[in-house]
Amino acid sequence: MRDRALSGSAYLLITLGTAAVTAVAWPVLLVPAAGRGWARWHRRRAGRLLGVPAEGTPRGRRDLAWALAHVAVGFPSGLLALLCLGNILVAAVAMTAWWAFPATDRPSLGSFLDVRVDGWTTALAGGALQIAVLGAVAWWGLPLLARLHARLSLWLLAPSVRERLTERVDVLTRSRVGVVDAHGAELQRIERDLHDGTQARLVAIAMQLGIARESLADDPDAVATLIERAHETAEEAMVELRSVLQTIYPPILADRGLDGALASLAARSGVPVRIDLGELGALPASVQAVAYYVIAEALTNVTKHAAATRASLRVERVGDLLAVEVADDGRGGADEAGGSGITGIRRRVAALDGDVRLVSPPGGPTALTVRIPCSP
Predict the structure, then answer these.
(1) What is the pTM of this model?
(2) Which residues 6+ apart lie within 8 Å of 315 measured at CB?
């Protein structure tokens, strides 16, 4: 409650200043870039106060409508906060230090109780009353005003239906291109693995068996050795083929489910991993596969790059979303362009219309948060 009162008061005081700037500098805000930036900053500020994500800021008339409302509502609200807090301070000074002023220039308790202090009775009783009333306003009223102003800003700056659809089409277009590229790269990788690994070993098996057939009549003793080599090569080919198939869909998901697969990943991790697994319900196979690969890649990054001593894994279902968070206490500073695999994670998640958020300040900690739609 105290934090909310303080944040609400600070929000209104800043709003007073920004409303004054908006009123004075409105010709500058007619420049599209300046207007969008100014509105975007206020939308993020309002979103932080309300604890909601700030969406993209609209353009044009909606920015101007918000600017007018910001001055009309924000200026008096901020001025009320300033007068309220200022009079609390004046009352506190007047009730404790009235005696230090000359008799002809004794302070009053403020604009709320415009009573000049001439003794301790007036100072203590009047000062306590003013502080109590204005303190209640600051405690309950100012946060309410701040939240109302923040909601008004978010409502006025919310993208229209057309803007939402346009942004959605842009996101889907980018994700489709990324998915096609990722799919092509994945097919090339599988083809390369089969060609360089499994196919080469199958050719070797065919050659060994051909030599054994030709040697059957001339050197029967060598046939056993050739068949043994062919058998070993066949086993190696099966191992490589199984490895390739695991990259398409991990068999452990079919055998043990997502929870068992995650326990296996945590057991193989190079750092201790604490698992917090919520109730997941029935998940589509595609969602399970993406979640598995995301977590496997993230834990690999923790082991290889983070210099961490421990990691945590949290997986839960929130409505129609599967939420995955992998965090570590490492050195942070994760670089997506440095071969950390984050780009691949983003592509896999984008294929299912999900989103990825990476927080990794220098010095750590690092937290990778992924949300994947899992409705059938």
Answers:
(1) 0.48
(2) 258, 262, 275, 276, 277, 278, 280, 291, 295, 322, 323, 324, 325
